[in-house]
Amino acid sequence: MIKYPSILPLKIESLNYEAGGKQLIKNISCEFNQGKRYLLLGPNGAGKTLLLRLCHGLLKPKSGKVMWSLDKDVKPKHHQAMVTQRPVMLRRSAYANIDYALSVRGVDKAQRPDMINAVIQRTGLTRVAHKLATVLSLGEQQRLAIARAWVLKPQVLFMDEPTASLDPPATHSIEELIHEISAEGTTVIMTCHDLGQAKRLATDVLFMFRGRIKEMSSADAFFTGPQNDLAQAFLDGQLIWWKRRPDKDDVQI
Amino acid sequence: MINRFVFRALSLASVLVLGGYGSTLYADETKSEITLASTTSTQNSGLFDYLLPLFKEQTGIEVHVVAVGTGAALKLARNGDADVLMVHHKTSEETFVSEGYGVERFDVMYNDFVLVGPDNDPSGVKETETIVDALGEIKAKQAIFLSRGDDSGTNKRELELWKANGDNPKTASGSWYRETGSGMGATLNTAVAMQGYTLSDRATWISYKNKQNMEILFEGDERLFNQYGVIVVNPEKFPHVKEEAAKIFVNWLLSEEGQSTIASYKVSGQQLFIPDAK
Amino acid sequence: MNDLWQAFFKAISLVVTLDDKLLEIVFLSLRLSLSAVGIALLIALPFGAVLALTKFPGRRILIVIINVFMGLPPVVVGLFVYLLLSRSGPFGVFGLLFTPSAMIIAQVILVVPIVTAITRQVLEELHHEYDELLRSLDVPWYRKVTALVWDARFSLSTAALAGFGRAISEVGAVMIVGGNIDHLTRVMTTAIALEARKGDLVMALALGLVLLAVALGINLFAYSITETVKRRHQ
């Protein structure tokens, strides 16, 4: 399925990020391997979205490294895609949104229509393909964002709470798409708040808390018996918010 | 697609258009076109619309009239922005020539100034003997008087007439004495609206169409005589001046034919200018 | 009221009879203002894009200055251009004073600040909206600019129309640098001023109505183009 040399595994080494004088990502190191579906879990403010954006290169770390498995002919950025919580729609038709992504990647004009039509069909957007993207429903916009990412056949797809503002049927259709994309060999790294969704999608879980990764394990292991107390509390629904205590880095539950 | 095409076409067209003007400017420097700086009174009266087509027919020379006040016209010519000057303030014109900006000044025609105002004549200027007395009455009654206030020939004359009485109406500026800072027509419009007096040249007054209840209340004083002069701008000062064509135009104005054409121009049956070239 | 009706009928009769003189000044007005807007777009679109999409020292000051220039009185622009183009001025040798070119130059100076300011505003907002996606797709800068300009084309056409409105309705500047010369530099606005000076208020108002109709026509034309393009997506 993937023609290029793999840019995976992705290695994160002692990653730190700071904004407004606050350290928001604290010395994170981890590794992401091909073909998996990683779920980043944790309460609000844990740094899930930041980590995603740092990995995708939208933010620059204060220190530490984001290392793709490099090959001299491959630009890692061109083999990743990102879908955000609030989809950014170009003010064009749904079709033209997808077409733009392909044209930026330098895909030949003659090849594009088939690729676009295929992905439109698979994401169920046929009916609205020629409508202006900005007037679509939120669910349709999110599917279009996924189609626009998917059509590039990325090796890694980052998704930041892709279903956060969607209703259950829309959420369900997005989850199905994620499974399909994953089945083609794309590695998925996503954040979410919904434990049910995490259980349905994850092969691996990263549990984050206050800028650190507290636990990284397979989904099975995580959901049956997490090693970390905070993770357990999170699963039990007890870790709902946290309070900053100036003298202590960790927090009592 | 349509928009992209329109944008491109528009920008291309604009470049072509501007370029086009540029090239025609150098087409025939010597003869075909001259710029005449003149006064609003001659333009507003319609005289040039009558004279210039005839002149062009005979000589092929196109005269571009820039009509401003006498003061502004002199300034334009001093900057070298005109080939010929036709204004009505003899002393300014003579200074212009003596300072080397003009070649020679010729009398070309005259008409006269008239004092116009509302027909009920609140200051009773109709009863006065001289224009100086008439203005004195206006001042005494503090009736509204509209002054051009724009350094035009008419404005200069008006101020000279006030001065003959030893008056300086500018001290009352803003109360009964009001300076419009505009051309003759605009000042007449204001006078009509304010029901005030104003000094106008006869040609502009006759051809003016918004008179309403205004009429000539005083005329005929020799101090109201309004002489127009014509001057070719000095080519020694400004080498780009189209001397040849400018001279043809001036000579035509002063010729028997030009003079009789001026005399034959009438609005509502009244002759507006009296030719007086020597 | 009577004068208003007269002006209205006069305007209609001028248009219906295709008065030669009227057509001449209408076409000159359109030619000048469209040229001015076209040239202004060539300057203002890139300028506005640079202001919107790049950061450099003095950028904020420049934005404030441009906003101030939007309110520049046309007469001041007229005098400025007059002094530049006068035979005694720095560009006097070109002999452009009292020509249509001089009027275009004055109108360009009047239009550029408006179009630049709107372009900057529109592109900055759209860039803010698109930034994350464009960076995620790793779009090269020149393709970023073309995408932003293309997707903002309807808002930018409003900028162009605003500029056109300023150009065609302006009288102070073109009167000074054009000289209101019959058959050469007389446009709708200076003709209106002239008729008003002659006290022919009905004619002046009638010409004003024709000007209004012309501006309306241009705007309807632009509007119908954008609507047609937009409707294809709905």
TrEMBL record, chain A:
Signal sequence bounds: none
Domain of life: Bacteria
Keyword list, A-Z: ATP-binding, Nucleotide-binding, Transport
A molecular-function term among this protein's GO annotations: ATP hydrolysis activity
Domain ABC transporter: 10-235
Classification via Pfam families: ABC_tran (PF00005)
PANTHER family: SPERMIDINE/PUTRESCINE IMPORT ATP-BINDING PROTEIN POTA (PTHR42781), SPERMIDINE_PUTRESCINE IMPORT ATP-BINDING PROTEIN POTA (PTHR42781:SF4)
Protein known as: ABC transporter ATP-binding protein
Organism per entry: Kiloniella spongiae
Organism lineage string: Bacteria, Pseudomonadati, Pseudomonadota, Alphaproteobacteria, Rhodospirillales
Automatic annotation (TrEMBL), chain B:
Gene3D superfamilies, alphabetized: Periplasmic binding protein-like II
InterPro entries for the chain: ABC-Tungstate_binding (IPR052738), PBP_domain (IPR024370)
Source domain of life: Bacteria
Domain PBP: 29-257
UniProt cross-references to SUPFAM superfamilies, sorted A to Z: Periplasmic binding protein-like II (SSF53850)
Protein name in the entry: Sulfate transporter
UniProtKB/TrEMBL annotation, chain C:
GO biological process per UniProt: transmembrane transport
Residue ranges crossing the lipid bilayer per the database entry: 32-54, 61-85, 91-118, 201-225
Annotated membrane topology: Multi-pass membrane protein
Gene3D superfamilies the record matches: MetI-like
Cellular compartment(s): Cell membrane
Domain ABC transmembrane type-1: 26-222
Record InterPro entries: ABC_perm_TupB-like, MetI-like, MetI-like_sf
Keywords: Membrane, Transmembrane, Transmembrane helix, Transport
One GO CC term on file: plasma membrane
Entries under Pfam families matching the protein: BPD_transp_1 (PF00528)
NCBIfam families: ABC_perm1
Membership in a protein family: Belongs to the binding-protein-dependent transport system permease family.
Record's protein name: ABC transporter permease
